[in-house]
Amino acid sequence: MIRKSFNDGWSYRRKPDAFQALLGWANEGWEAVRLPHDAMVRRERDGSDREAGHRGYFPADGYEYRKTFFVPEEYQERRVALEFEGVYRHARVYINGDLAGQCASGYSNFYVRADHLLRYGADNEVRVEARGQDDSRWYPGGGIYRGTSVIVSELLHVALDGVRVTTPAIDDELAVVAVATEIQNESAVTRTVEVVTEIVDADNEIVARDVAPVTVFPGDTATLRQRLTVAEPRRWGVEHPYLYTCRTAVTAGDERLDEESTRFGIRSLSVDARRGLRINGEPVNLRGACIHHDNGVLGAATIDRAESRRVEILKQAGFNAIRSAHNPISKALLDACDQLGMLVMDELSDVWTRSKTAHDYAGDFTASWESDVRAMVAKDVNHPSVVFYSIGNEIPEVGTAPGAVLGRRLAEKVRELDDTRFVTNAVNGLLAAGPEVLSAIAAGGAESMEKNSADGGSAGDETSEVTGDVNELMTRFREFMPTLMTSEIVTTRTAESMAYLDVAGYNYLDSRYELDRTLFPNRVIVGTETYPSDIDRNWRLVQDSSHVIGDFAWTGWDYLGEPGIGRVEYQSDPAPATSGMPDHQGHYPWLAAWCGDIDITGHRRPASYYREIVFGLRAEPYIAVHRPERHGETVRLATWWSWSDSVSSWSWGGHEGKPVRVDVYSAADEIELLIDGCSVGRAPAGEKNRFTASFTTVYEPGELVAVAYTDGHETGRTALRSAAGDVRLDVTVDRARITADDRDLAFVAITLVDTAGNLHNTADRRVAVELTGPGVLAGFGSADPRSEENFFDTVRTTFDGRALAVIRPTAPGAITVTVTADDCPPNTTRIEALEGQAGEPR
Q1: Distances in Å between the alpha carbon of 300 and those of 229, 392, 601?
Q2: Distance between CA atoms of 625 and 651, rounded to whole angstroms?
Q3: Which intervals hold domain DUF4982 (predicted)?
Q4: How many angstroms separate the CA atoms of 294 and 292, rounded?
Q5: Which residues lie across from 548 on neighbouring strands?
Q6: What is the 3-state secondary structure (H, E, C) of 503-553?
């Protein structure tokens, strides 16, 4: 089987009028692009479009892509397929003008059979249409935003996604590796072939081998099962993500008909309410991050290096698991999780049959869910990082009998396809409990809830209408949530939908953890979505409760869309104009959610370091300084996804002699704060004080030091120094050598500093990037969640002293990146793009 990248040579445009296109009157407007490509992020945002608010005010539209490619004559005796890893949305694929395939989901991997429509020995055209509407609660992107491949095979070949590797028995002496290989015979004769299967270790040494014959009738598919033993196996785990490769060859005499290469890991999984989650017999608490699929300044474009960099940074921040909220994860991200040791909860969908936005996937789910489940499992099955399949997120109908029936069908279909992982569902009690609890919240809280329950509210009563987004309701009435969520209504409404799961996913239901240990002693719980400010309390519950196996924060990485759900607004800020947006979201020009531990450029925010301390992974204290220009102001709005409005810096020019609040995060007993060696005071920290010591002092330039003490002994210190003098540009590339293919990128961090490298966070200015050599600017921007600049200008404004440029290679050679700004000496860095191995199997 030949698998090659199909990402080059495309053009795209906005979808023209269909009638004009049919008559050949619409042939203009094409722009050359290299996939993966996000068409939506290049559009101008529109603050007047109320429907676009969820998407960060980007307009939804239809797009079409086309590519011309040559097909050799000899391919007439072969099979040709095209793979699309993700097209948003309602993809239709045409080959030489005829429909070849389609996929309703914007996130499912799908294949298109091409050989019956091809012209051999000639050029062919493939055209892809993609259409999005008001169909998402976040920024979805548009067009062919994930990678594509062309796959060519002999008439007798290994089926697509046709190799499955499991490890049913493992001990220190040996592991049994079970390999199931599907062989398809599309020729007109019966064939008997041999399948050679080799297990290869990380040093490319063959550690197990088996050869077996298999006979396949014409038009039939045969599954060959082989069991191989690997002596003294190296196990895959979070700390030691060791990978093997299964090499499969199909031969007939001396002829090699097909071959496949499949990476996998040897590891065991178990979970129960007494011992929690165990991997290879060792207990693991999930330090989880919910993530969306976009890549910040790249939009939704899913280029491999962006995915691997994200996993690297999340792991450095202390996370050991990610949840792909709320759609199937990309292949590139799975590869990175396998290689780096990150556990995965892969999620199917945000909706089943009830819509959350006007034109969302609920209209397609009934017809498409089975193919979507098959695609997700086929993509995931050989990845050791995948531990959970989540069948949904905050599905309203899980609290109804029909919803429970549908959920059980979904869970059983997953188990039919892969019974080696655990099935969960991210359940929100507010939605699952239905009109009773929503009416109670709208009416004023817990007292109304209790009265409604006492009056015997019917579970099937749909007459009570509550307006507003669920996140908005949760924001406005969170003080009532713990009582409401432990009510009998929630217990009853969620019982059946929790019962068919291996692990019950709780969204904002941490108040039920202790209650449900008694009510459901065999239930295993994972916090699939929690508020960032609750991590200290929730992590204590995880540590103390064997039946609670982890916590997934909303969110680990900031994202586009759901604008401003983590914002902080002050009384002096201009009141937003009424625009029809839910109160929990920001009005234009808000762009990003601003609720991530890590911002859209990959820079860690203060919440990230706080979480790392709570996890017990960081001994040094961390200093977060509240913006002094806001000192003493009344906060008008801080949502439950907000963090403090703080920056880790002691450079606040123009605020000398003015009061400022300093928070120090630490697990130590006590923190002493010093300015230029003079003590500001001491304050308790540690878990009893929510890991935070707070001080109010006066800003004076110099050195700010936090010293941690436990039992009277110093256990760590951190210092911040004020930037002084001229502003300079610090330009740092993540890797000086990259591969010149369609999968690699270079990330160039731009920081405003002084001569000593101290951050000039209040000296923001416009910076320009200029490239020479074989590379293009794939994205350029800052983490500013309210920026009105776009990600493709060569000039952008820094935010808190930082910006990020992403360079994509176009050919081998030296790429020079020159960064300039007013009143700053220019700074140049060099990137070597080396000849790559594009097109090789993953």
Answers
A1: 42, 21, 13
A2: 10
A3: 657-715
A4: 6
A5: 525
A6: CEEEECCHHHHHHHHHHCCCCCEEEEEECHHHHHHHHHHHHHCCCEEEEEE
- The tokens describing 456, both together, are 């015997």
Q: What is the spatial distance between Cα 331 and Cα 143, in angstroms, rounded to a whole number?
A: 17
Which residues contact residue 40 at a Cβ distance below 8 angstroms, ignoring those fewer than 6 apart?
55, 58, 59, 60, 61, 88, 132, 139, 140, 141, 142, 143, 299, 300
- Of the candidates 397, 584, 388, which has an alpha carbon nearest to the alpha carbon of residue 473? 584
Check whether residue 135 and residue 160 sit in a common domain.
Answer: no
DSSP secondary structure letter of residue 293: S
Residue at a domain's end among 706, 721, 736: 721
Neighbour-count burial of 539, counting CB atoms closer than 10 A to its CB (0-12 exposed, 13-18 middle, 19+ buried): buried
The CATH number of whichever domain residue 418 belongs to comes to 3.20.20.80
Q: Is the pTM value of this prediction over 0.85? A: yes
Which band of pLDDT confidence, cut at 50, 70 and 90, is reported for residue 220?
Answer: very high
Query: What pLDDT score does 566 carry?
Result: 97
DSSP per residue over 675-711, as a string?
Answer: ETTEEEEEEE-SGGGTTEEEEEEE--SSEEEEEEEET
- pLDDT of res. 708: 98
| Cis status, amide bond into 797, omega within 30 of 0 | no
Q: Which of 19, 33, 38 is nearest to 66 (CA)?
A: 33
| Same domain for 195 and 139 | no
Q: Within this chain, do residues 750 and 797 fall inside the same structural domain, yes or no? A: yes
Report residue 663 as tokens: 């928070």
Distance CA 496, CA 732 (A): 53
Q: Is residue 696 part of a domain?
A: yes
Q: What is the CATH number of the domain that holds 713?
A: 2.60.40.10
* Overall domain count for the chain: 5
Query: Do 538 and 656 belong together in one domain?
Result: no
Q: Is the pLDDT of residue 466 over 80?
A: no
Residue 548 lies in a domain: yes
**Cβ neighbours of 502 (radius 10 Å):** 16
Q: Look at residue 570 and tell me if it is in a domain.
A: no
d(CA 558, CA 289): 11
Tens-place pLDDT, residues 168-218: 999 999 999 999 999 999 999 999 999 999 999 999 999 999 999 999 999
Are 113 and 190 in a shared domain? no
Residues 261, 340, single domain; the answer is no
CB 104 within 8 A of CB 361: yes
Q: Are 751 and 821 in contact (CB under 8 A)?
A: no
Residue 203 placed within a domain? yes
d(CA 375, CA 397): 24
Domain boundary among 537, 559, 581: 559
pLDDT grade, residue 480 (50/70/90)?
Answer: confident
248 with 394, same domain: the answer is no
Instruction: Show the beta-strand stretches assigned E in 383-465.
Output: 386-393, 422-428
d(CA 159, CA 812): 34
Q: Which domain holds residue 87?
A: 2-154
- Same-domain pairing of 551 and 410: yes
**Maximal CA-CA distance, the chain:** 89
Q: What are phi and psi of 673, to 5 degrees?
A: -110, 130
| Residue 748 in tokens | 């160039």
Question: pLDDT averaged over the chain?
Answer: 93
